[in-house]
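Collaborator request, handled under Task 6.
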Amino acid sequence: MKPRLKMDKIAKSLGGERRGKIEARGGYFGAMQLLADLQDRLRAPAGGGRSTDPRWTERRLLPLAPETLKRLEQLADKIRTERGVKIEPMQLAALLLERATDRLEVHDAEALFQRRKATGTGEKKG
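Structure tokens returned to the collaborator:
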């Protein structure tokens, strides 16, 4: 296991102070943050099997467009080959979904639904 960094000690030795956690959102640094989250959270179960986040106890089916699944497969494959992290496409999807919902406010979700409804893409035809 990698040794944990003592961020308070590092900040003090550099003459600074910690002010909180900063999250990268996109680009290279966002990808590196995602990779660090994956490595930190995914653990092999005691009885063996695929690594997972122990907090993921709910199992649901998630419908996806074929293009979305293909993109998740490409991303997961790239993470596996370039970084050596064993991850499946839907594990990546679960982590991305968690990150998105952490940042999303209720009014943002409502606004998204209203835009889709206004353009006719959110309504069922019957």
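The cover message to the collaborator said: "Residues 25-42+62-104 form one domain. The two ends are 56 Å apart (CA to CA). Please let us know whether this matches your experimental observations."
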